[in-house]
Design a protein that fits this description.
The protein is an alpha+beta fold. It has one domain: Vaccinia Virus protein VP39 (Rossmann fold, 3-Layer(aba) Sandwich), CATH 3.40.50.
Length: about 80
């Protein structure tokens, strides 16, 4: 499915990143489900996130699971900023 934004355009990416969690507040419920699973399974887990975007999930997991080993990848240079 094509993305509704140009993930290589820094302006579009910045706008998307500023709005994504406001438009989809339920994302934090999903983030918490990941936290619960990691803590129940292995609090020292190695986590690989593909398509990490601006890192909202990474930030949430690292703040709630301080012992995980986290690696995030995203093809979009604009997302890295």
């Amino acid at each position: 499915m094509p993305s509704p934004i140009d993930l290589k355009d820094p302006i579009e990416v910045k706008q998307w990143a500023a709005e994504v969690n406001l438009k989809r507040p339920w994302r934090y419920d999903i983030f918490q489900m990941y936290v619960d699973s990691i803590l129940a399974f292995n609090p020292n887990a190695y986590v690989l996130e593909l398509g990490s975007g601006p890192g909202y999930l990474a930030e949430f997991l690292i703040n709630h699971c301080p012992n995980i080993h986290y690696t995030a990848f995203d093809f979009s240079e604009a997302m890295h900023d």
